[in-house]
Amino acid sequence: MWHIYPMTSIMTSINLRQLRDTRKLKAWLRAGKIVELRERDRVIARIVPESAPRPPMPDFEKLRKEMFGDRMVPGSELLLRDRGRY
Fold it and tell me: Is residue 25, in this structure, part of any structural domain at all?
């Protein structure tokens, strides 16, 4: 049994009877911990906290203007020209 202890101490666990105490469960979830729901020492579910909202996508058009200004980069023309070399 001693070899199982380190694995169970990593993740917070709660059994069905303890699930009634929602204050403790909410505190763990707010702290970002994943909680295992157990029944007779068997994991039956994992309760995962809601992840933080993702940052919005960068404005690539604005970044291109900052780097190149009004200059247009003719990518397709360069590609077609380079294909002729090989």
Answer: yes
